[in-house]
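Structure ticket #2291
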Amino acid sequence: MEKIVDKITFREETRPKLKKEGKTIALCHGVFDLVHPGHIIHLQQAKQMADILVVSITAAEFVRKGPGRPYFNDEMRLKVLEALECVDYVMLSEGYTVDDIVESVEPDLYIKGEEYAKESDDITGKMTAERELVEQHGGKVAYTTGEVFSSTKLINTALSGLPEDVIRYMEGFVTKYSMEDIKKYAEKAEKLRVLVVGDVIIDKYTYCIVHGLMSKDTGYSSGLEYSEQYLGGAAAVARHLSSFTENVTLMSIVGNEEEMRLQLFDGLADKMRLKFTYSSEFPTIIKHRYLTRNAKREEYRKIFSINNIPETVRYEKEAGEAFRRGLAEKLEESDVVFLCDFGHGLIDEEIRELIQEKAKYLVLNCQTNSTNYGMNIITKYNRADAFTLDQKELKLAYPLDMAEEHFALAKLSSHLGCGGWLTRGSEGAYGIEGRSVHECEDIHECKDIHECKDIYKCKDIHECKDIHKCKDIHECPAFTLTVKDTVGAGDAFYSIAGLYAAAGAPTELGTFMGNIAGALGANIVGNKEAVEKVNVLKYAATLLNI
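Resolution: structure written out below.
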């Protein structure tokens, strides 16, 4: 008997035959990435509860355990289950839920491990919906008992599913924080009234096949494949946040192009409140990137970029005043403001001062890009409650201090009067507590720093061991080196780390959550999709299982 069957065959041929014979059917579902003794016991107990045992696995593209998972591909996982004597049929589920399998199998019993018996503990929030769907099809949920093993833990350690630096980091992290802590702050974040202010950017991606250099010039000769448009800039940040709370408002000035308005409302209106002011003089920002895909893996390289951003953007008086009035009103009723300053003209001095004065909790991101290089420096702000920036942006703010990133980051923290994060690409991130550089005892213990009148020429600053031991700075490694596109990774980090900070989470926990979001964002092309709460929490659970 062929054990591996597709859904249509089972629904139209196998199930009717089994039902005619009076057989009872049990269904077990999971990733089954590495089958271990716990799985065997679970499946054997499930087989004892019914005549026929069907086991389904989640297809690789829908597994939410972070980049690099599942460790084994679909075919391998199906074959391992097929080899088990207690399993009668094996099926592939092609979705984030088990709905397609339940509707095809219509099990008498849907069997889970006893750790799922308390539905409120399920971080995916799907267990209740699964039970209700099973009951709609005439079945019920049952539970097995027995020792709980973890294939995730085995893969993370025994099979080197995680890099060594991540394993070392997580071994320390789990002594201080748990999944309960992460869920607690996520629940607090749900109640926050969030305002996102910043430029809305349309990211247009055109995919090409590069043939080579032009025969009579130095440019690329490429074949056009197709183009897509994604909602970027402040819209991308708002989408990330809307997965964690329903109370998100996005404010911006955009062009009055009808096609763009429809795209923005179609993509955003069901997830958040939109407070747009329309400009008749300046268009909605479009950044058009031309990309080619790596021939051997899903990784993209940008070969050219153009945009429609004018050299100087000064919105017409009516649009500017309408935006400021609406912003002043919205600041009063918002618990936290995410200020996304992309340096494209929306955040002028008046808007900047208004937000710094009125925001109850301000999460700041002041970005450097090719159109504003050297002109949009984060130190133009003098107040925030949390911030993020990358290494290039920190270097522009403190060019003479970058021989020691910790010191430059501490100076920025002191300047803004808050904690925040420095994202470092493949090297991970630094998180600094909301304490002034002058309050850090370890830095003050180094006499050589304070005795040197010209700190920028002082050779001894590099010899000071204490500055590297500042307890206020937490270092977190990158959680993945598997990358499709880094364009949205920084915004994802900023969104989730900032939201956790606004919910009262410690900086170190915010660093962890931001790095998870960044890892997930780096595996999304452009801003095609938002980083979803369920994916962030499941990846956190994967990393904590060390």
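Closing remark: The chain has a mean pLDDT of 86.
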